[in-house]
Amino acid sequence: MYALIPAAGSGSRLGAGLAKQYLPVAGEPMLRHTARALLACAQLRLLAVVVQPDDAQADACLAGLAPSRRLRVARCGASTRAASVRGGLRWLLEQGADPADWVLVHDAARCCITPQAVQRLIGACSGDLVGGLLALPVADTLKRADGAPPRVGATLARDGLWQAQTPQMFRIGELLRALERALDPARDGAQAAITDEASAMESLGMRPLLVAGDAANFKVTLPGDLELAQAVLLARRQSACGDEETKHA
Ligand code: CTP
Ligand code: MG
Asked: Is the full-model pTM beyond 0.85?
């Protein structure tokens, strides 16, 4: 089992002046929290963090988290998330991964992922032919906006709708084939629809498994999300300290 964290984005919607994966949350860069949670997965042979070729922060950010054979920085980030993941998959194959091996792809910006949720995904998908993803059934009523300022154009049926999260777990070779096809410049327009790994697999006709995720596994995208992530991580830390104190009381 391999894992890939695409961490080559710029965080433009957050607009912090620093790529969001390096912003401090609960005292550590977001990427460090994310990598630590994935490394807790004992089945993981290697976690590759995909960054831009000129990235100057990843090594310091991840220092000391794991032995170098389990955590590596791959400088093959590209201009879109899908292209960064494609680069990371090619890199894993160069390092000796087998195309039939599983890979977990997880956003650096989902720093509140728990090892338990990762195990839930692995447990549900490892016997599956296709693979799958963490996702949440939509709970809110959905509106389609119309005009400016926006007014409700329509209320949409939410039956059967899920919000996709990560990690997403697929076989390296199949996912790479799906992304290479989707990113082929000859297939004009196909790229925009590929916003996660599952959508690339779906474009090959496959039907990934939906596995229940957690509301706390949201993607830090807008400025207010940072505070929320910090609150979640601090509350977990406090509860872990409380557990330790009870054990030693
Ligand atoms: N990502 C990447 N390569 C890119 C773009 C994004 O590896 N060219 C990564 C981001 O670092 C992030 C994940 O994909 O961990 C999810 O993307 P997103 O939340 O969109 O992050 P950004 O692209 O950095 O943010 P924004 O879209 O607001 O610029
Ligand atoms: Mg983006």
From this structure: yes
